[in-house]
Design the sequence.
DNA sequence: ATTAATAAATGTACCTTTTACACTTAACAA
DNA sequence: TTGTTAAGTGTAAAAGGTACATTTATTAAT
């Protein structure tokens, strides 16, 4: 084992896979940017940046997300660290990917225009630079696992949402159809949804009741070892 | 966004959480080493080392595992990257943890003596340096999740093992008792175990039949979307 | 030869959860 | 008043999970 000083130092980056849900198009979207510097300038990429000596990896990821979206306190979890020698043709860069879930409606549309960021449907992504495509695949797989165990779906929806919208979201994440009655039965027996006295009336004459996620009762259930897994048809 | 060259470089390390299973003591063990350099020389730590410019993270982890154990082609998966600024008091080091599963019997006892490595029971670990305790906790949690979905337990057992031994292993990982008949029913319906014509006779007069993991039928089932989860009492 | 001791091996009934499936209701517009 | 549209609802059958006690094979001791 060598002394610290004898060892080679590396550039470290973070890249953010930023998921959003488009409630109208019923599609998961990713916030992507046009890369502004060489190599690969002008091509689509994840939001990323180098880790500074004054910040942790988590802080770097938060910073990059904030710079792009103006949002703080976003759902953000480490995904995986990519460390192949040649993954970035510009230099050896070790990059830690982070998964972010945001409510599309929270984003200031102007802001993202300025920074050259755009929401792109997961179904038809443009080609991404380097290994960013692999990062997206892994992050999506993690999201699919995560949502079985934790109600992270609510991070992607507005405060008020209908059961139809919630089901559409689950179908988009699983990329599978779900039986309506079974879905409602299961999600309602979890007792983490509050029915509101208000209806969403854009999409039907009858209207659908809004619900709200109750974070407190969720915490209670988690402590009791509650299992949110939703095995879906 | 700055140019590559303007950004600060960091030391990158990998640390290996090496799990083994002691079939006699029915305990999960970790292979730990006495640290040989400052800071924290002489204290217990995970096996780790710096990432070289000529190797990927995965390669660095394999190399460190090989240097310590002499084993190649070991089950090895990335766990998590630890990037707090002050996690290592010697310098800023970003460390990626890897989870390794090895058969204790595969290890050349001499070799580990030379390198100052020792198996320590997970139940009564010594204090570990830096954030290595946290790394262990996370890796164990990952192992507990992993074993529900993939039969990784077989990585920890010798080629031939009895159902009693397999159950003991699951109990050690889950840190929970499991009903014998239900365990056997479930594990046998998975059809990935081959019963051998041979008995283990050390621990009882009657003797227990040896089984062998059939990797081929496992692959077949995985492709069909088989679910190995074993929800246990 | 018989008996005692020990751990391995085995089956079933009950309960819970999951699945499959089609009609009624509310609201508005014509 | 009627037509249209999407929201909302229940039940029966199947599958899977849980709880639980006795028999069997083998060896050592008498």
Sequence:
């Amino acid at each position: 084992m060598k002394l610290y000083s004898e060892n080679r130092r590396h550039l470290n980056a973070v890249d953010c896979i930023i998921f959003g849900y488009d409630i109208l198009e019923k599609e998961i979207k990713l916030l992507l940017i046009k890369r502004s510097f060489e190599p690969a300038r002008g091509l689509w990429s994840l939001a990323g940046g180098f880790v500074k000596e004054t910040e942790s990896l988590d802080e770097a990821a938060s910073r990059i997300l904030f710079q792009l979206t103006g949002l703080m306190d976003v759902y953000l979890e480490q995904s995986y660290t990519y460390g192949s020698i040649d993954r970035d043709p510009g230099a050896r860069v070790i990059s830690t990917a982070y998964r972010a879930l945001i409510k599309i409606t929270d984003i200031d549309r102007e802001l993202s225009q300025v920074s050259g960021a755009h929401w792109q449907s997961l179904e038809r992504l443009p080609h991404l630079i380097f290994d960013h495509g692999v990062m997206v695949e892994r992050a999506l797989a993690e999201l699919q696992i995560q949502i079985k165990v934790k109600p992270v779906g609510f991070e992607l929806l507005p405060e008020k949402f209908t059961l139809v919208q919630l089901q559409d979201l689950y179908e988009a994440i699983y990329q599978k159809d779900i039986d309506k009655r079974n879905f409602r039965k299961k999600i309602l027996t979890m007792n983490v949804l509050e029915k509101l006295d208000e209806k969403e009336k854009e999409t039907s004459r009858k209207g659908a009741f809004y619900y709200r996620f109750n974070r407190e009762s969720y915490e209670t259930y988690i402590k009791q070892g509650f299992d949110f897994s939703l095995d879906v048809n």
In short: Residues 162-164, 180-181, 184-185, 203-209 of chain B lie near DNA strand C (CB under 10 Å from a C1'). The helical segments of chain B are 57-69, 109-114, 132-149, 163-174, 180-189, 215-223. DSSP finds six helices and ten strands in chain B.
